[in-house]
Specification:
Blueprint (H helix, E strand, L loop, with lengths): L2 H15 L9 E9 L4 E5 L12 H10 L6 E10 L12 H11 L4 E5 L5 E5 H4 L15
Parallel strand pairs: 3-4
Antiparallel strand pairs: 1-2, 1-3, 4-5
Bound molecules: tetrahydrodeoxyuridine.
Length: 143
């Protein structure tokens, strides 16, 4: 993806990260999901005293989009780090989020894992979730 577009998406993810609700882990994540129609849906992680209801930033962004009728996506940018710290590792989406995204995008989604607007790597959902299970697997004779 073009550098300028990647940077814009990362900037949106960094903004969303500011709203992360993380009283338990203090690990703040922001995601920005680019729809094929050009719209950007952002999300942050939202934790819970019951721990398991916690929603990751990626799924927050995805569910916001789908709940507004948008289901086709080309890229997602993700930024995460402990509050007030810069991480040495990029934040890669958890297995649940990979599966949730795969439902709508299959392997082609561009995934930008960013430490900052200028320090990022680009991969695809197919690389992060090889042989992913999706809607086609439920068909008798998929194309
Ligand atoms: N988290 C995300 O929001 N996205 C990821 O890609 C990895 C993990 C959140 C979940 C939890 O609130 C915190 O980061 C620590 O796991």
């Amino acid at each position: 993806m073009e550098q300028q577009q990647a940077r814009e998406l990362i900037r949106a993810a960094l903004k969303a990260r500011m709203f992360a609700y993380t009283p338990y882990s203090h690990f703040k994540v922001g995601a920005a999901l680019l729809a094929k129609n050009g719209q950007v849906f952002t999300g942050c992680n939202i934790e819970n005293a019951g721990y398991t209801p916690t929603n990751c930033a990626e799924r927050t962004a995805l569910f916001k989009a789908v709940s507004e009728g948008v289901t086709e996506f080309s890229a997602i940018a993700i930024v995460g780090s402990l509050e007030g710290k810069t991480n040495t590792l990029v934040t890669s989406p958890c297995g649940v989020c990979r599966q949730a995204l795969f439902e709508f995008t299959g392997p082609d989604l561009t995934v930008i894992l960013a430490k900052s607007e200028t320090d990022y790597m680009e991969t695809t959902l197919g690389e992060l979730l090889p042989y992913g299970f999706g809607p086609k697997n439920l068909e008798i004779n998929p194309e």
